[in-house]
Amino acid sequence: MARIKFSRFFSMIGVGLCLMAAAPQAAHADVLIYTDPDYKFRFSVPDTWTLGVPNLPNTRVRFVSPVPGDHAFCEVATQRDGRFQIYPKRHMHTVMAENFDAGFWQKEAARRYDNPQILRVRLPAGLDKGDAAMAQILYDWNVAERTPSAEGSGIDGDVIRMRSVTLTSVYGDTRYDMTCASRLDKFHRWGELFGSIMASMTLHERYTMFPTGYYRDFLGDPPYKVIPHPGLGTSVRR
């Protein structure tokens, strides 16, 4: 009986290999998976997207869509931020809510963009394993100034109105900012794909799931009674 099962199993493998060999042109990747060499995060974009030129500080990578008129892109920026390493992972949602609220995004949008307008701030949010804050922002983008090869196809000369969604997370000692955006009047075409790209983000593991780390369960040890006694470097009050 076992011999028949193994025979059937290997026959199925053989059929699959034959089908793959018979149709080599049909086998192609639908997505491109990017892995950062230093921060070890990874995410996927459609394989038709290409690397773009980052236009914000600390940007690690930027991918742009093949539809030039929509100006759709996704990018990830990182910076070291060790302010919250003292907090256990279970308290990070509170840390994010207190430090990345609407007031933070008002300043952040003004720093990043021209003529920004915040549509929405959401807390809590998530970026893979990291607690996050989310913001949707409208802003003006000078296409000719920041991407010289792009065609000016927006309103008011080369300035077009953009809509972005950003997830910001402090995970371990690093802050991650993942942003996807397109021109405002085309955002409805890209919103679902942007959500899929952001959902594919995987952060390098920085926390252990066990309270004692990867050490033995010392929390289960019996209590010890420490009895002080006089010795070098000690004093006893009598």
Could you walk me through the main structural features you see in this protein, from its secondary elements to its overall organization?
The chain has a single domain, classed as Mog1/PsbP, alpha/beta/alpha sandwich (Protein Transport Mog1p, Chain A, 3-Layer(aba) Sandwich), CATH 3.40.1000.10. It has 5 helices and 9 strands; from the N terminus they run αβββββααββαββα. A hairpin with an 8-residue loop joins strand 4 and strand 5. It is elongated and about 80 Å long. It starts with a helix and ends in a 39-residue tail after the last helix. The N terminus is likely disordered.
Brief characterization of the structure:
The protein is α+β, with helices and mostly antiparallel strands.
Topology, pairings included?
Layout: H1 2-22, E1 31-35, E2 42-46, E3 50-51, E4 59-64, E5 73-80, H2 92-99, H3 102-112, E6 114-127, E7 130-142, H4 143-146, E8 159-171, E9 174-183, H5 187-199
Antiparallel strand pairs: 1-2, 3-4, 4-5, 5-9, 6-7, 7-8, 8-9
Fill in the keyword field for this structure.
single chain; alpha+beta; Protein Transport Mog1p, Chain A; two-stranded antiparallel ribbon; 5 helices; 9 strands; disordered N terminus
Task: Let me know the largest β-sheet.
Answer: 7 strands, antiparallel
User: What is the ordering of alpha helices and beta strands?
Assistant: HEEEEEHHEEHEEH
Q: Would you identify the CATH architecture? A: 3-Layer(aba) Sandwich
Helical amount = 10-25%
Structural class: alpha+beta
Please list the strands of the largest sheet in the order they lie side by side. 3-4-5-9-8-7-6
Mean pLDDT across the residues is 80
Number of helices: 5
Please provide the count of β strands: 9
- Spatial extent as radius of gyration: 26 Å
Strand residue content: 25-35%
CATH topology: Protein Transport Mog1p, Chain A
- What is the CATH level 1 assignment? Alpha Beta
Give the number of domains: 1
Q: Which regions have little confidence, pLDDT < 50, spanning 5+ residues? A: 1-28, 147-156
Report the CATH superfamily. Answer: Mog1/PsbP, alpha/beta/alpha sandwich
User: What is the general shape?
Assistant: elongated
Distance between the termini: 84 Å
